[in-house]
Amino acid sequence: MRVGLLGTGPWAGRVHAPALAAHPEVEFAGLWGRRPEAAAALAAEHGVPGYGGPDGLDRLLAEVDAVSIALPPSVQAELAVRAAEAGCHLLLDKPVALTVPEARRVADAVERAGRASVVFFTLRFGGDQAAWLAEQSGRSAPGEWFTARCEWLGSVYAAGSDSPYAASPWRHEKGALWDVGPHALSVLLPVLGDVVRVTAAEGSGDTVHLVLRHAEGASSTATLSLTTPKAAAVSGVGLELRGEAGLVRMPERNESPLAGFGRALDALLAAADGGAAHPCGAAFGLRVVEILAAAERSLATGATCRV
User: Fold this and answer.
1) Total domain count for the chain?
2) DSSP E strands: which ranges in the chain?
3) What's the predicted TM-score (pTM) here?
4) Which of 96, 189, 218, 223 is the most buried (most CB within 10 A)?
């Protein structure tokens, strides 16, 4: 599969580009960026053609079978639709968009075009985490789980942070709810089922606490933050489930996102080769955005919101 990369930022340079270059079943066929000079520089690092500007995007889309997108979500949504309409399969980042209508346009474009899509939720493609989630989901039945607790406590904006993502404008604007909230939902939904109601409350900094009611009767909570003090953010990602099986905890992350991105590429290849639609496709990305939008309404109104 010939894959093009859209994006030149830290996530594109640290994860997308090296993973595309290393994958044995993928040809890293080119790179496009909104800034031609940045596209040329990152493309040169990997020995692939660089494309810049609107015309460059159209040329790249005509040359590839799929695109991997590492751009802000509001930009990603528009370009994902263009790529699907050009006949490309999509490897998307989370969240797929920042509004429900934008996310629905992406999902609809993928369906109309008959293209494969995968959204790279890092925990869903982590080696130990993916295996654990499959085990828990496989034995799930209505009433199996009583409750769950999920945390993603990051220090991107904490004092003394040197995170390469601290300069991201959309993260500054939307905070932890939209940046790490998708990760939490990506592991809660496959085990506990769809969310029907959400209540959200603010904490310190950009911290948000969610209380979720799931369609099959379970409840869950999620604590999300990018402003956790650095000393408190160690092992700040976790999920525990409580139910008939007792208390079970998701294994901690123990590998680079590069390995997970390689598995996401594997999933896209399988889906594009006539396999079933991947459970982390654009339709699931839309559902995550719908839940996040309901949480945002809850923060604004102080009320529990239906999804």
Assistant:
1) 2
2) 2-6, 27-33, 50-52, 66-69, 89-93, 117-120, 145-153, 195-202, 208-214, 219-225, 237-243, 246-249, 305-306
3) 0.96
4) 96
